[in-house]
Amino acid sequence: MTFASLTYDEQVAHLTAAARLVLPRYGLNRAEITLLSYLNNIVFKVTASSGQHFVLRMHRPGHKRIEWIESEVLWLSIISQQSAMQVPHPVATTTGEWLTEAMVETLDEPLPCVLFQWIEGHFYSTSEIPLGEVSRAAGFIAGLHEFAAAHQPPENFTRPTLDWEGFFGEQSPYNPGEGARIFTADQKAVFGEIEAEVQNVFHELDALPDAFGVIHADFLPKNFLFTESGVAAIDFDDLSWGYFLYDLSPTLLLFKAESRYPALREAWLAGYSAVRALPPNFDHDLEAFMAARLLASCLWQAGHLHNPRVREHAAEVIAGRTEDLKRFLQTGRL
User: Fold this and answer.
1) How far apart are CA 165 and CA 83, in angstroms?
2) pTM beyond cutoff 0.85
């Protein structure tokens, strides 16, 4: 029996058992764990006997290079030490390591694990978020970009680069590998046209100063929250070298589905530009980045067919997003 052949609940049970064996390495011997999510990685909320909360993330084996995970933790440590911005604070094991590994029954490879302090706060859905909070969140990501533009990571910092090759090439974190068999010939043709459009935008931005740096790369409402002291961002698992403007596209793409989209968009861009200037031609480029985001989500679906819940709906999801991409190719807008 292989791990991929297990049901969703069976996979979670195996991963939970492995997580319980990892926690004592952090001195959390009698902690309780609660599943938060299981899509790409598996993420648990950890409650220590003292009542303190943490987040344990277990990475799918082979999906992220060890040096990438170590660099994410390093960057979060730098932000925490050199700014007042609220980001997850990494927790070391009792032997001083940021990263440890878990062995899972039916898996041949160990799962890299990292632990973070819990950030208490409030999340909003796209339908409920007040416009003022939209602007505050956009101002926060602009502040992260200002920090990244002013702080050069150390030489041992290694993260994916979301240029054309990073999005669509063989070494891309979105490369679905054998999962690409799920794509139809029509879908592949649409994807090729989108790749060409996005590459043109990359060339335009490459000519500008300060358009490229370390980005969050998954700045969505589920990954930013509002605390007593301001805005916080979580889940830097997709941290990348990339175009700063791209960080505005994931949330803007979600806002597209809302009837008040014009007001949400205005608040989002106003909040960002109050902290950091938007580049020329940002309107067109943002549409292209949203299309790139949609295409990346199709590639992600195809690359996660090992997860029963993804596999169940992947073909339907990809078909719907391909239609959105066709509209972009016809009109320049999603």
Assistant:
1) 32
2) yes
